[in-house]
Write a sequence for this structure.
């Protein structure tokens, strides 16, 4: 008996998750929800390029839930708590568990306390489980850090970096990271909110601090342009020397005037042109010190698709509530269905 | 309200765990069990060198449990399932949860299926939780590997290495690893069971395989002498060129004739004298590939003390049963009690 899963939102991430769900023995892809006219009414397998699988794409999410009767719905439509709350409520009143890759949902208890209380109440009232996850927030710069502190007698301070290459991504990502802008345009973009950097530092920092029982007095975020010294080109971006190759985003958690958690995430195209090696790096300063690196970094797209898919059984099997990655067992790759 | 913890076995690990428990806000060290005459009847704080804490060391474990009324007992007396079973039962009939660092208890379902069933039955009958853990098995070469596969769409094969330096350890460890023997004595020691290498590969490999749903057809273990090219000396060991500096222990999990899990753990004194860098290394071959390293390795003693202590609240809060690290949330450093 495989768990029945509906995927709401069939963009790059939602489509990847749907495809991955379909490949897994423990899971059954029972349908999709998507508004794009070219998707509505189609078989979801055909839309995903894996052949007809006898499951439909709906434009009406309620109809999708009622007809496909899923155990869980994956919501892969937005990054923000306020934009997924109504969707979560729709799943809840139909008693369907929820997993979402909306970054803010990984740990909104600090950034969105009121909404978090409402979501937790919804989970308990309708006896469903809700989890926000992904590769980051959700895994590299929070869960993995927490796990490393578990091997320490004491921890004084945490530093971690995720250095990646944005080259594979499309125009939207280039715009939100300011790739190809001039330094002046970058500053302007930060001000008017078109350049956002990474979404998730407020969440990751609060998740780590709460896990360790650290009462932070401040979380700050800094976004700096990565000014290129070289010419960098991808299919959708062109950066000349002196222009912006990406956004160096820093998040810091303070206790009084001491930085106890520092997360650094410079996102740019082709960092190797300036000798920068991509990777995930975690340094725990405590007793003992732990210095972990993953080279190259766990890729963001595949990592998010994998973590989201692999957590589905744990969410379905969990007690009701608004859960976090720090509350559940670690994900493990689900077994392939060799017949698919 | 701190959780009340009794520590059974006050050797190097048990004493370290007891000291660490005492330093933590969420935990209260309520006593110890130890047969050494110089310990019995003493205040455990005085025995540990941290001053009188008003908690006693008993030689009778049942009396200790009845008088100290712990929520959980840490069993740090042995490495083997058969040697801790009776102790677990004594805790169980008194409705006390158990955490043990006996290596085989980290995952004995494959190596000791009958005993595992009995232990699980005991846990359920008396409504207690039981966990076997430590740095390895329990964390580096199993839980951390499982977590890394969680960021993969698929995994084909796993290789991992834990390269450490035995120099800080005492005579017993040198003997069980064959440090300072001749190659002939090493072979003889393997045959008569005085040289054992690492305890835990059967457990770690089975834990990984079960988490991934892999049905292994064979687990094999190989122990090879590490023949020294250089002279190596510690306080308790002296290795001349041509003699044995330690034991290279390899564990392999097969599906038919394919090695799908390979764990390598060369344990020796002063590996740096021959240019060997200590560290924990995990390579996941799948989609994506993940290459993780921790340099230097997480130290075995402190790591075991930390992981064991930090898992205590999760064991107490868990549903009854014989649990594994793959069933529970990741450990995180517990907060220091600043008053202690």
């Amino acid at each position: 008996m495989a768990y029945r899963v509906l995927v709401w939102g069939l963009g790059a991430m939602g489509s990847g998750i749907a495809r991955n769900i379909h490949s897994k023995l423990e899971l059954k892809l029972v349908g999709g929800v998507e508004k794009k006219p070219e998707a509505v009414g189609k078989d979801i397998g055909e839309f995903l390029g894996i052949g007809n699988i006898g499951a439909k794409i709906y434009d009406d999410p309620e109809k999708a839930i009622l007809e496909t009767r899923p155990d869980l719905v994956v919501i892969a439509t937005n990054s923000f708590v306020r934009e997924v709350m109504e969707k979560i409520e729709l799943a809840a009143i139909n008693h369907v568990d929820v997993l979402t890759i909306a970054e803010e949902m990984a740990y909104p208890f600090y950034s969105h306390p009121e909404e978090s209380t409402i979501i937790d109440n919804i989970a308990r009232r309708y006896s469903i489980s809700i989890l926000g996850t992904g590769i980051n927030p959700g895994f590299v710069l929070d869960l993995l850090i927490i796990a490393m502190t578990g091997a320490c007698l004491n921890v004084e301070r945490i530093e971690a970096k995720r250095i990646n290459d944005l080259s594979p991504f499309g125009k939207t990502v280039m715009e939100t990271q300011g790739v190809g802008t001039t330094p002046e345009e970058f500053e302007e973009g930060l001000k008017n909110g078109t350049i956002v950097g990474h979404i998730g530092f407020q969440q990751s920092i609060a998740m780590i601090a709460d896990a360790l029982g650290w009462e932070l007095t401040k979380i700050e975020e800094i976004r700096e342009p990565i000014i290129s010294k070289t010419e960098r080109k991808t299919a959708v971006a062109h950066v000349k020397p002196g222009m912006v190759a990406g956004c160096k985003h820093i998040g810091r958690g303070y206790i009084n005037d001491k930085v106890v958690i520092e997360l650094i995430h410079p996102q740019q195209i082709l960092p190797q042109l300036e000798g920068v090696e991509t990777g995930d790096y975690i340094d725990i300063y405590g007793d003992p010190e732990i210095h972990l690196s993953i080279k190259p970094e766990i890729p963001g797209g595949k990592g998010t698709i994998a973590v989201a898919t692999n957590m589905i059984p744990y969410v379905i099997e969990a007690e009701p509530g608004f859960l976090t990655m720090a509350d559940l067992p670690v994900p493990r790759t689900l077994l392939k269905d060799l017949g698919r």
Remarks:
- Chain B touches chain A through 51 residues (CB under 8 Å).
